[in-house]
Each structure stands twice: as structure tokens, then as C-alpha cells.
Amino acid sequence: MSSRSYARKLFAALLVAGVASASSVFAQDRTNVAIASPWEIASADPAVSGFVIQKLQIMENLVDADTQGKLRPGLATEWSVSPDGLTWTFTLREGVVFHDGTELTVLNAAQALNRALEQPGVLSKAPISRITAGEGALIVELERAFASLPALLAHATTVIPAPTALDADGIPSDLIGTGPFQVTVFSPPQALEMTRFDNYWGKAPMIETASYLAVGRAETRALLAESGDADLVFTLDPTGFAGLADVSDVSTVAVPIPRVMTLKVNASHPFLDDPRARQALSLAIDRAGIATAINRFPEGAATQLFPPALAGWHDDTLKPLETDLNAARALFADLGWSEGDDKILVREGERFTLELRTFPDRPELPLIAAVLQDQWRAIGIELDVNVSNYSIIPQGHKDGSLEVALYARNYALTPDPIGTVLQDFGAGGGDWGAMGWQNDAVELALETIAASADEAERTEAIRAVASSLQAELPVIPITWYQHTVAIAEGLQNVIVDPLQRSYGLSELSWAE
Description:
Elements: H1 3-17, H2 22-25, E1 32-37, H3 46-55, E2 63-65, E3 71-73, E4 76-81, E5 87-92, H4 106-118, E6 128-133, E7 137-142, H5 149-152, E8 181-187, E9 191-196, E10 209-214, H6 218-227, E11 232-234, H7 238-244, E12 250-265, H8 275-283, H9 287-293, H10 325-334, E13 338-339, E14 345-347, E15 350-351, E16 353-358, H11 364-377, E17 382-387, H12 392-399, E18 404-410, H13 418-425, H14 440-451, H15 455-472, E19 475-488, E20 491-492, E21 509-510
Parallel strand pairs: 1-10, 1-11, 16-17, 16-18
Antiparallel strand pairs: 2-3, 4-5, 5-7, 6-7, 8-9, 9-10, 11-19, 12-18, 12-19, 13-14, 14-15, 20-21
Helix pairs in contact: 1-6, 6-7, 8-10, 13-14, 14-15
């Protein structure tokens, strides 16, 4: 069966299942753009699916950012802070309406952000005492200075849904925002269709309609690009990306991004609570081999947590992470582990066995988990791999059952990385960051970074954080990422955002 036939048969099955309509599946005309990505839209709630809602330009933030992370006006035209740094004022844009015709007001913006503040997202990490509606402006009062607040208001969980999108319990149940595209069909968690919003406050999009389909299998996404059934395909696996290079009517782009594949380690686990144990695990990882053989991006072997794409956070002075099996074995010996009859390490009658949790949305993750299984067995660690839904990782963080997890983390989810770093390594750690690990010096440095507008002071604190993470390894970096995209012939003005905030739909057009 040809790849085109396979793709069409796949989508025919999806149509029967009722997850998409024909207009959202096939790129039949030059007024529509069909997008395929691995990420499901499980809910209309920004706290759950905001990162996709933001990418598709359905809902918007008070503060926006360009592809370099530079802040720019969004639904707020300007913002300022009081001399003591404790009161921020955000002036709202006039004449903005939601997709249902409701006017954007300071009051409903304040209500949306107060709800976001109650959720376990980045906004909860800011020292906010209250958010209120002023005269034409939203007022945010702080308990202490926090210079990074505007960057947090550019995060996907702080987009503004319409008041009419909320159900009786105040939870967003409809995808109604102020963005250049409005949703016409929503079939969670896989598909939606959109049309151009004619009353948009900004520049009108060139395309009339767009459709989105969440496709978990990377090989299927590549086939959709090859067959022409998707015009813009994101997050290709190395094999699919390489194969599309020979397809005449598809072009491919790869851009280094601030995303890192990491191992989340439960630092309170009795096998892992000593930094030397985590250092030993790191020493047993062949990053260069993984980056070359699986990711096909040799430059992506992670020598530290923050990649070069994360300007201002990557530190060339750090001693790079390396592979040294003998050093790893020596560290475990120092910790009282010895080799058992079956070559697995034993201490006080306990075998060194761990469970690693990961998920298949990024196709390289299960492959790398299997490689780690072999690499760690070489130093006497038995690793059981559990491939399931990504939710098993935050769930395991919350209930304490997680031992090790493999995933990819984007440290530029906020234009200023402090938003994500604070969420991951601040007090208590985070679902996608540290677990069972606390470092008072790091917490103090993070507070300094978040509060200060002095670049020299911030730089010194950032280096202190990077150095501590390199030494104690509450998460263990494996590889850095590149953003891979397939683009249909004739699709113009495609912007591949290295911060992965937007798919740039409002800029797209078709060649005549």
C-alpha cells in the first residue's frame, strides 16, 4: 500500500469515528491550512490545553512575545510598575471583542487571571497578593518586587477566555477567545476546525479557515505531509524528517530550540537521595550516541541543562557532563552498592531496580528509554520501562510514586525562562521539574532573578542556579532539541517559532 493510500485510509477511519470532518482532514483548497501535531486538545481550559490554544491563536494574552522572546503588546497596549516594584498597571487595548461579540473588559480580564492564579501554573509562582480591575487598566499588586511578571502573563496558561466560555462552575468549557481565528468545530481531544474572525482587532489573516488534528504517531504525521493531507506538520521523528527530504512538494525545516530531554529523578528515593547516585546515573549515559543514532542531531548531546538556544542561561564555563562507566561504578561502590550474582547492584539485601515512566507522543522517548535500560544495566541497574500517557508523570509526582521519568521540557514557555525555571526548581519543585529536592541557595537565586531588573545581578544568579543544577542533578539532561516542521509546497510566510509559542497561522498565505 502506498503512503498516500495509507494516510487516506487512516483518515477515513478517523472520519467514521467522528473525530474530524472532511474539510479538516484534506488540504483541498488554497483558502485552508491543515495542521498536524502530536498534541491533543483535551479541554477548553487554558490550565489544561493552553499551550495548544495559544499556538492556534484562538485566545490571547495581555502580553505577547516575538520569536526571540522580546515582549510586545498583546491585549494590553502598555504596562508599568510603581517605584517600589509592588504595583503593576496593564492598560487594556480598546475595541477588542471576543468571538461571540462580547466586549473585552478589564473586569473579565481580571476574572480570567484570578482563576489562572488559583491553578498550579506559572502565575502561582509569582508573589501576587491580588488582581483587580482599575479604570481602563488591570492592576496587579505584589507582596514583593517581581520584575518578571509581564513575561509570566505571556504564558499559555494566562490566555483570556470569554466570560461566556465558562460553565456554571466557572471552568472554561468552550473555546471562545479574542484571537484571529474562532473555533467552529471542536472534537476533543483530537480535532478542531477554525475560521477567520472578521472582527479581530489586529491584522486580518490571509487564510480563511484552518484545521488541526492531533496525531500521536510520528510516522503517521510524516505520511500526512508526504501525501498532501496536511499542509503544516510539526514534530517529526528523525526517520520521517529524513524521508521527506526526497518529496518534491514538501520542504522541511529544523530549528534549534530551548527544549531539553531530561530524566526527572525522585531525589527523596532511598536509592537516589545522594547527589553522588544521580551523578553516577548521569555518567552512565552515552549522550553523544543517543543524539547521533536516535535524534540524528549530534550537536544535541547535552553537556548541561540549558542549551545554547537559551541565551543568557547557557554557561560555557561549566564543566560538561560526560560518560565514564568506571567513575559511575566507583560512586555506587562509595554508596555501599556491590554487584550481585546476576550483575545487578545490591545493598543491604535490596536490588537496585527502578521504574522509568515515559510516553510515546514524542516518538524518540520510548527508544531512548530502551537505550537507557541497556546503558544502566552495564553499571548494575535494572530499569523497568513504563510507556503510557504523559499524565502518569505529574500524577507520580503528586502521589510520590514516581522514581524516574523521561520527557522533554521547554524552558522558554515564558519569554523570560525564569517563569519555567522557577516553576521547576523553586520551593517544592514541580510536576515537570525537581522532585524531593530542595536547595536554599537556588531558591534565593531564583527569587533574585525573578525580582531584579539589573542584568549583572541576574546573570550572577543565573550562573549560580546553573552550577547547582549541574552538580546536584535533580533532573539529568540527555539531549537538546531541534524543532522539525514539514511545509507543503506553495504555503508562504511560514514562521518556525523556536520558542514554540505560535504556529504563525495569521501570517500564512498560499502562492497564487
